[in-house]
Amino acid sequence: MDGELKKGTLLTSENGNKYMVDSLLGEGGQGAVYDVVMEGKHVALKWYHKDKATSDQRKILDNLIEKGAPDEHFLWPEDLVIAENGKRFGYIMPIRPKEYKNPVALMKGMINPSFLTLCKVAYNVTLEYQKLHKLGYCYSDISFGNLFFDPKTGDVLICDNDNVSVNGLYASQVLGTPRFMAPEIVIGQAKPSRNTDLYSLAVLIFYMFIVNHPLEGAQEASIKCMDIHAMRLIYGENPIFIFDPDNKTNRPVPGYQDNANIYWDIFPQNVKDLFTISFTTGLKDPRQRVTENTWLEIFANMITGIIRCPSCKHEIFYDTSKEELGVAHTCWHCSATAKVPVKMVIGRKVIVLNKDSKIYAKHTIGNSDMTTITGEVSINPNNPSMWGIKNLTQDNWTYIQEDGSQILVPPQRSALIKANAKIDFGVEIAEFK
Fold it and tell me: Domain for residue 336, yes or no?
């Protein structure tokens, strides 16, 4: 390739930092990514192809470097590196740890994270894009290629942030990735924006949960050649949700799109309802797309709403709609009936209290933090039938019994789990049900 960087090449940034090329990490449509070393520290360099090293791209980078990353989960541009002739350039970003995997590995079955981990990935990536949007940006290209996650923890890293642009002032060279672009972009009626990001985010999450594209059903199966015209039809001109309740013409084809039929029934009704909104009314009206806050509430409840099958130990999602209808929770894997444990309810937040359940700052403080553990289920060693919630904060809680009497719960002490009792965390109040 013209201008390919060789091992040992020395580059200097605008700030005077010296970077030595170590190895090629990967290559894409815009450029190649290299492992480079500065003062013994390994970082990543994205070096643009000649035709992509435009003045507009450099302006975007200058702005992003000046503004800084929303937080540490973005592999954000940190330094600008320019060739001696001034015609080629690239940017420095943090290097991705090897344990982080791309969603493509999930689609191919190369990794098999738990449902709990997938829900954490969905929560974390939605939260990160919300932070980006709150700063007035749109990402423009939410897709498989730009997300990495830890299959054990659900932690996420977002890369290729050089395509981020100010919402409403489109300047990026990238319109999006095929299959992830909103219909209005596919047919040329809009440019990337926060609303088109919301569509792409819904596609990404659907893919990770259902292992199928939300628009690829009978219509896609009938196409012999997936050329640009076919893609424009399916994803732009005539998009039909595969589980559209009012239009059954594009249902998944058995034997060809089995993942969709298998996984769809595993998930709780409230997340299926949001997918239905995203890919019915949200297909045609960008203003009706599901917002990050709405997704976050559902994903938080999914994280704290997992039940273990008493027979095969597989994960089962607690589903409020089943309790409302008086329908038992049955295991999708072995069909055994699972008893729903006592629940802690805080407004619309629900925590199913298994022996290893945790509660988070989001529950006790009311923020978006689903990482900081503020409480956990504890079992009385002298009486295993007595379970409580252990206070892992530095503040006192107030336990409110059914008769209204109150008991102080200091740090490292537990409040008894008992139906109709409550815990006042100081900001939020939880009730056992």
Answer: no
